[in-house]
Amino acid sequence: MSDTSKTAKLTIGDSSYELPIYTPTAGPDVIDIRKLYGQAGVFTYDPGFTSTAACDSTITFIDGDKGELLHRGYPIDQLAAKSHYLEVCFLLLYGYLPKADELENFERTITQHTMIHEQMHNFFRGFRRDAHPMATMVGVVGAMSAFYHDSTDINNPREREIASHRLIAKMPTIAAMAYKYSIGQPFVYPRNDLDYAANFLHMCFAVPAEEYQVDPILARAMDRIFTLHADHEQNASTSTVRLASSSGANPFACIAAGIACLWGPAHGGANQACLEMLKEIGTPDRIPEYIARAKDKNDPFRLMGFGHRVYKNFDPRATVMKQSADEVLDLLGVENNPILATAKELEKAALADDYFAEKKLFPNVDFYSGVILEAMGFPTSMFTPIFALSRTVGWISQWKEQLADPQMKIGRPRQLYQGETMRDYVDIENR
Ligand code: SDX
């Protein structure tokens, strides 16, 4: 813990309490309230954790006002431009940029773990073909603990590392299999001669009937999308993984819990919801109608892909994603994509509207990713599985960090109870 010379004074009635203040290397100071209940007999109240730091971390830092995102101190725009996903995985997992031989060994390890146990293929066949791929992924990833017993002991550092490598390596295979199953095509095995992103595209779009060449520009765009989604501080799904891990649950169960949480349209499901919203809007002339609905307090409709709990400026990932959208659609000869046109017009109209300006609602990572993924040939139902695949390294890195934290305790929040106080049971004849 950093410098603890500063304190906060809390006065309740005639009593005063001194609470330590810690100064981080970046971001706001934090007040340590761990002893508050024991000293003052009161809880703090923070539904949605808008003002609560749930842990220490050294992995990712976001400055919401500046629109900055750092992974182990490196800005996301530099990583997106100069690095690649597996190098970012190494950085998130181990805390530093690898030397050439370290990176080569890491990439070889991941490549050699991309197949899943052959028996697991049967799991997919238990689902309906029209099952959402996220449902399949939650089920299959959770079931990994039934197959990989030799990497479920969370107290064994080597088993933790093997589980980390297995999850990073197998998520693309599982996501691609979920997609193939949903369209009635045979599974395509991973290939060790392809890099991570190209392998995923090959497993999704190749068919046994003919050779499939992955376009290197699309592979680069796919890799960049993976990088942009890799980790993001203590977001809802990462916090879910940490809470599950705090009970000692095995890594596969924790990651399955993270996938389930990511699925929600307020979180990782927003990329699917955003593209469906853009399709529903259809043409730019209908944008004012939807902006009015988003501003209407009586209408639950929100502009999917806009707003963020932390970013009160541009999401730096959206900026990079927007550049990628232009490149990919230009390559595919669909630069006149009506959905992209509507997206750009919607962004312009929203940013010019006082409501969005005063509430600091800017496009987030999900706003442009769907446009790219659809142009690459993915159905909207595959957008969140791709987000889950990318975020697995962030979940695993945060999981590893928490297990190594000597302060780790089982997460068990309290509540502001507003229910009935003690009362006696009433027999049914007297009700
Ligand atoms: C991700 O946390 C992370 O880091 C997440 C993520 C990651 O990498 O892990 O970045 C990935 O989840 C990105 C967010 C994707 N979700 C969406 O695009 C869905 C649409 N966005 C909203 O649901 C919302 O903006 C949230 C959930 C993202 C953030 O909500 P907050 O921080 O809880 O803010 P809020 O709901 O309290 O909204 C504040 C105000 C409200 O108005 P008032 O009650 O103050 O009058 O802004 C309004 C909201 O009504 N508002 C919106 C809006 N988002 C917020 N109004 C219209 N459209 C929107 N999109």
Description:
β1 and β2 (15-22) form a beta hairpin. This protein is mostly helical. It has a three-stranded antiparallel β-sheet with strand order 1-2-3. Helices cover 49% and strands 6% of the residues. The structure holds s-citryldethia Coenzyme A (SDX). Residues 48, 232, 235, 266-268, 270, 294, 302-309, 359, 361, 364-366 line the site of s-citryldethia Coenzyme A.
Beta-strand portion reads: 5-15%
Average pLDDT works out at: 94
* Oligomeric nature of the chains: single chain
Runs in which pLDDT lies below 50 for 5 or more consecutive residues are none
- What string, H for helix and E for strand, traces the elements in order? EEEHEEEHHHHHHHHHHHHHHHHH
> Helices and strands: which structural class?
mainly alpha
Write down the Rg: 23 Å
The largest sheet, given as strand count, sense and whether it forms a barrel, is: 3 strands, antiparallel
- The strands making up the biggest β-sheet line up spatially as 1-2-3
What's the number of extended β-strand segments?
6
Put simply, the count of helices is: 18
In percent, how helical is the residue content? 40-55%
Note the gap between the termini. 57 Å
**Which ligands does the model contain, each kind named once?**
s-citryldethia Coenzyme A
> What global shape is seen?
globular
Brief synopsis:
The protein has 18 helices and six strands. It has 431 residues and is mainly α. Bound molecules: s-citryldethia Coenzyme A.
